Amino acid sequence: MSVVTVQLGQCGNQIGHEVFNALCSDIHGTHGLCSKKENESYHDCCKERFFCKEESGAPIARAVLVDMEPKVISQTLSMAARSGHWKYNSHSHFCQKQGSGNNWANGYSVHGPRHKEAIMNLVQKEAEKCDRLGGFFTIMSMAGGTGSGLGAFVTQCLRDAFPTSFILNHVIWPYGTGEVIVQNYNSVLTLSHLYQSSDALLVHENDVIHKICAQLMNIKQISFRDVNQVIAHQLGSVFQPTHTAGEGSGYSRNPLGDLMETLVPHPEFKLLGLRNIPQMPENSLAYSTFSWPGLIKHLRQMLIANAKMEEGIDWQVRPPHPGSSIPSTNKPLHFNTSIANLVILRGKDVHDVDLGSFQDPSLYTSWLNPQDAFNAWKTPRAFNKYEKSASLVSNSQFLLKPLDSIVGKAWNMFASKAYLHQYTKFGIQEEDFLDCFTTLEQVISSYTNL
Amino acid sequence: MTQSVVVQVGQCGNQVGCRFWDLALREHAAVNKKGIYDEALSSFFRNIDTRSGGNGPDTYKGKICSLKARALLIDMEEGVVNEILQGPLRDVFDSKQLITDVSGSGNNWAVGHKLYGCQYRENIVEKLRKTAEHCDCLQCFFIIHSMGGGTGSGLGTFVLNLLEEEFPEVYRFVTSVYPSGEDDVITSPYNSVLAMKELNEHADCVLPIENESLFEIVNKIHQMINSGKLGSTVKQNSLVTSSAGSAKTLQERPFDAMNNIIANLLLNLTSSARFEGSLNMDLNEISMNLVPFPRLHYLVSSLTPLYTLADVNVPSRRLDQMFSDAFSRDHQLIRADPKHSLYLACALLVRGNVQVSDLRRNIERLKPSLHFVSWNQEGWKTGLCSVPPVGHSHSLLALANNTCVKPTFIELKDRFMKLYKKKAHLHHYLQIDGMEQSCFSEAISSLSDLIEEYDELDATKGGPRIDPSRLKIAV
């Protein structure tokens, strides 16, 4: 089953490019520490999922590139072509001459309707090339104008045009200390709209990835390219082929569907966080050894204590004792309650790993059986040069604090009416803002009361 | 890619404009090694096939034949424009894109705005339309003028009005040179305040500049070079005041160094729109992020570094120094101290070999010493452009929407009132058709209102922060 990627705005296009790079270099790199047959099967599955085979050699990414100004797309297309391993379809892109000016209303109300037909035509073409369409993966930032505003509009169009397909939005949360001054407005508008049309939102926060680059990857002068490469690695660890139905079965035929089924049991809870360990500079890999019990223990504590990376985990946080009837308001505030978790393991000796600790009922809310709330996908084929790699995709209170912070800052600005004239001139009124705030306060409340 | 058109009005406007075009050519020549007319060049220049006499269609792509500036030169006396047309830049300007007269405006805003405005209206509109037609996607008009005289101030703001009427969708960025206290034009306060009303109402963004600040920067650079304090040699073409490497070979005139600073300001402002980078910052983003309320659109600017030393390895300490300097009093282009006033918003546009971590580190470092308004505590807009300016490996342009502009406006108002109370020189204005006493009272009232808006914001500075209560959801 194939996935069509839609890259929106500068951020979406820059990250999308790194994702396809990561997928390609994974399958071309070391042969994966598994049998040749397994490796070939992995290779073929990845190719079919993300690339289209053309007679003239380099595989073509199943992607549509969208931006309202031309510089980033032209850079992205040429960098991909230069790699020699893969490229984009030279027709699968849409751009205009003038950007959205960091204005969500401009992206959503002006550019969206104006260019709907052209953009959806490109998406339709890519969808038709797939033997079986597994769904859509959109990449966008929340802070700007195109990715956020036009992205929200395009997601709605995707939902209308493909009512039975899965839509996963990959959303980048901006640095807390501004990249864009109106980023909180744009974020609130984006999240509330995506919540209506998307199946799930997979979130990466710039601040978190930046810390990983600084402390784990030891990069001195961190560039956006470094940040994007870490994000691409984490996404690759989720989207590369996996066995979802136990040893001996083939690779999953429905990656997005499986993801949604395991993680999104209720439409009010769509925010997914991603953690991936270990993460280290490439030249340290040769000197490091990992044990599965060690990795699993760390990952579990990262979940419970809401740690963003493998350093600085708070080991004091413990789940409440099972059986004791502690009402949710009395739970220790820093304990992270989950609705559902998915652990994806790749590499050596993966089938013997004991994941019982993740099935502890005290980690979860009461309304699902722990057996249903927790799933594990194990694949013997190693990923991206890591002998052992463990990823956790979690629908939990991971994003509660950041979400609350964004909504709080946006509300603060809204109360003073600052910048509102920039939005009203493109048709987004104060009432629209209020609706969005209400939607998100509802989401915050739901996650808080888990 | 979008295009911008520069409208230079009056003596000051044209002299600054001339430096701008010179340095723009120099910048593109440094980047564009193959002589191909690319999208970056097209933002400010047309490519004309000279064989068809400049009347033929523009040649897109392909080799550069003849570059013409997307500009309109307006002056009510001929001296300055004639000099430009006889100088080394004569081929850059289309002879049809000029509007001149002989007698000047006599330092009288009313003559510029009402008399010449009326007289030349159609001519101006027609020429503006022509330049707009040559643009694939026109994004912005840059007006360059001074506030204290008659043409730049009066006719310049008339053109501003026209632009809003004829091209409402296109942004209007105005670079205004404000008169200093010792200005030798007696009526400059009248001209400036009358012009301010137009700027309040019709401009999207205004970049106020004061000659005194430019002069101090020029002096500072001279001192640094002549004192021999700098161990290695300074790269001549890196001076923010320098014309080195540009077409100008004549002896530098006194205002050239100061005007080069303004020219560099405009080049840096548009760099991220013209060149690539990992975090682009287009002109419409500047207006969106830095203007929280429509009338508060005055942006204090600063450029760093002022020069580069010849040594190639730049330790990050020096990079950090660049950021610190951007906020210091003596690097601002008007006499203002943003550090001790209140920020409504701040933009940092970095060019060259600087990454996001350097940017973040410096924002974290400088934030505690700056005061931001309560509803915009993280009010930073950032941009990273990979192409540095000529002679530098990196540079920074800081734009601040800050209440430190208030003293400039208050001084202007005081100087105005001194003259107005005595009705000095008023008759020169009132005798012009269309000019009435109410023009003056409305103008001063507009300025007072603006000052009051800044006052109200200042009053919130340092006070207790009470966040408004959030919406409550029934559980």
TrEMBL record, chain A:
UniProt keyword terms in alphabetical order: Cell projection, Cilium biogenesis/degradation, Cytoplasm, Cytoskeleton, GTP-binding, Microtubule, Nucleotide-binding, Nucleus
Pfam families: Tubulin
One MF term in the entry's GO annotations: GTP binding
Record's subunit section: Dimer of alpha and beta chains. A typical microtubule is a hollow water-filled tube with an outer diameter of 25 nm and an inner diameter of 15 nM. Alpha-beta heterodimers associate head-to-tail to form protofilaments running lengthwise along the microtubule wall with the beta-tubulin subunit facing the microtubule plus end conferring a structural polarity. Microtubules usually have 13 protofilaments but different protofilament numbers can be found in some organisms and specialized cells.
Lineage: Eukaryota, Metazoa, Chordata, Craniata, Vertebrata
Role: Acts as a positive regulator of hedgehog signaling and regulates ciliary function.
Matching InterPro entries: Delta_tubulin, Tub_FtsZ_C, Tubulin, Tubulin/FtsZ_GTPase_sf, Tubulin_C, Tubulin_CS, Tubulin_FtsZ_GTPase
Record keyword Glycoprotein present: no
Domain Tubulin/FtsZ GTPase: 47-246
Name this polypeptide is given: Tubulin delta chain
Swiss-Prot/TrEMBL cofactor(s): Mg(2+)
Source organism superkingdom: Eukaryota
Family listed: Belongs to the tubulin family.
Compartmental location: Cell projection, Cilium; Cytoplasm, Cytoskeleton, Microtubule organizing center, Centrosome, Centriole; Nucleus
From TrEMBL, chain B:
One GO BP annotation of this record: microtubule-based process
Gene Ontology molecular-function annotations: GTP binding
Domain Tubulin/FtsZ 2-layer sandwich: 279-414
Cofactor: Mg(2+)
Name of the protein: Tubulin epsilon chain
InterPro entries with a match to the protein in the record: Epsilon_tubulin, Tub_FtsZ_C, Tubulin, Tubulin/FtsZ_2-layer-sand-dom, Tubulin/FtsZ_GTPase_sf, Tubulin_C, Tubulin_CS, Tubulin_FtsZ_GTPase
SMART domains per record: Tubulin (SM00864), Tubulin_C (SM00865)
Domain Tubulin/FtsZ GTPase: 61-277
Gene3D superfamilies per UniProt: Helix hairpin bin, Tubulin/FtsZ, GTPase domain
Claim: Nucleotide-binding is one of the keywords in the record: yes
Pfam families with a match to the protein in the record: Tubulin, Tubulin_C
Main location: cytoplasm
Keywords: Cytoplasm, Cytoskeleton, GTP-binding, Microtubule, Nucleotide-binding
